[in-house]
Structure formats: C-alpha cells, structure tokens
Amino acid sequence: MRIATFDQRAVIVTDEGLVDIADASAGRFPSSTDDLMGRLDEVGEWFASGETEPTWDLVPDVVARDPRLGPVVSRPSQIFGIGLNYRRHAIEMGMTPPVRPLVFTKFASSLAGANASVALPSTHTDWEAELVVVIGARARRVTPQDALRYVAGYCVGQDFSDRDLQMSGTPPQFSMGKSHENFSPIGPWLTTPDDCGDPDDLRITCDVNEVRYQDSSTEDMVTNVAGLIAYLSSVVEIRPGDVIFTGSPAGVGQGHTPPTFLAPGDVVTSMITGLGSLRNVTTRATH
Ligand code: ZN
Fold this sequence. Notes:
The chain is an alpha+beta fold. The protein has 2 domains: 2-63, no CATH class; 71-284, Fumarylacetoacetate hydrolase, domain 2, CATH 3.90.850.10. It contains 6 helices and 18 strands. Strands 1, 2, 3, 4, 5, 6, 7, 10, 11, 13 and 16 form an 11-stranded mixed β-sheet that branches. A 5-stranded mixed β-sheet has the order 8-18-17-14-15, with no helix packed on it. Strand 1 and strand 2 (9-13) form a beta hairpin. It is globular. The protein binds zinc ion. Zinc ion is lined by residues 81, 128, 130, 159, 245, 247-248.
C-alpha cells in the first residue's frame, strides 16, 4: 500500500487513482497522514475489505509530479538524521565510518513534498539522496531482530545540506545547515513494508540535471535500518510518525573531484527502486 498527502488530505495511491481515506471510510479514519501513522495496518485491512472509488483519477506517475503532493508526514515528534552511514561515503569525506551511529536532526519546518523547489542559501549547498523510514508504533529499547515491526513505511528523502553552515563551527554542528526551508523533501508517497522488499537491498540514485552522481545500494550502510531503530530506541522513545533519514551513499558534491555544488536552476532527482522519486529544482536565494 502507498500512502500520500495530496492537497492536504491523506490518500491511498492506487494504479487507478487516489482514494481519500477519510471520505471513503466515512470518517472512520482522519484526513491527516500524521494521525494515521500508528494505524496503517487497520487502514490496510479496511481498504482490502471493500470497494472504493478513486477521488482523483490520477495515475501514480502523474501524482508523483503534482505540486499538490505534500510531505508524507508533516508533524513528526522527532526527525533523525544519520551521518556517514555508508562505507564509501565515509571514505569520500575522508572519515572512518563511525562505530556508533552519528545522529543529528533536521528540524520539522524543513519538511517538503516531492516537487518542492529549494532556494539555495549558500554557494556550497549539496545533495544527499536517502532512504527515509517513518515509524509506525511507540517503543523503547527494541532489538534489531524486532525493529522492523515498528516501521510504518519507507520513502525517498533528500537531505539538502548547506556545507558552509554545517562546517562553520568547531566542532561542526549539522542540524542548522540541514534545516533551511524545503531542505527535507520526502515522498513521493510512503510505501508500507509489505510492498517495499528488503530495506537493506534497495538501489538508490541521485541525478543533478543529466548527470548521475549517486548510484548505490542500501546494502552499503554501516548500520542498517534495523540497527538504526534499535540504537535510537536505546536512548529515546520512538513514536508513530517519527522520521529517520538513514544517511547518504557516496557521490555527494563535497566528495566529488573537484567539489561540486548546486547552482540556481539545477534539477535534483532522487530515486529509490520501488519507492519512486523526488524532483527538486533549485532557485536563487531570496535573502
Ligand atoms: Zn544525510
């Protein structure tokens, strides 16, 4: 099952069109994806049990590029970013892969839909295509063996990063440089685990204009999805709707020779096989 926020309504994305969950269920379910993240099993059972007519006759390929598509969730209680979580990416940044996950946040006001445009705050704004996990149940201290039971679904994320701000302090601090407006597009929709395949074996790519800079697999992660959930939940409570940006593979602009960054008008396409793609166009900063 694929869940999206379309025109500010929670919808199921089917091959025939979009089903408005609140309307089609006659109000049994709420109209916000944020309020549905702990209930997707129930939504799935309801949807499988009856006939529903699409509210919008839009096929997935058209939906994916529609500006009405919002972020999959917009009010997470926590957003976790993970640094240097792919082996080849750690090497290109001149670092050794961390022994313990390197955790920062992307503040929630930076969340955006799949086709959001991004005003560049500096001449060193970089791209990072990432697998994003959305949590579906409240928990503490889950084991890696149990961890995937707490996943509501997966989507594509782009962790736009202002390297100037990220690296400006001593020691560097990540969260502000990754939280400008629209720096955290996620989407195009959430795919539930039963339709996602193995999260540790997904192809992930990022193109800037016509050039493919990132082409990797989640197999290269230092700490895999289950390990990240187990680690995070050993310290904090994970809650329905929480978002994890699981780290970027090799091929970011900073790691390129010579380093390459985004310019106004660039088109950044982030894609994960089976989960869809984001298309974000950059613009000149307005300030
Ligand atoms: Zn990242």
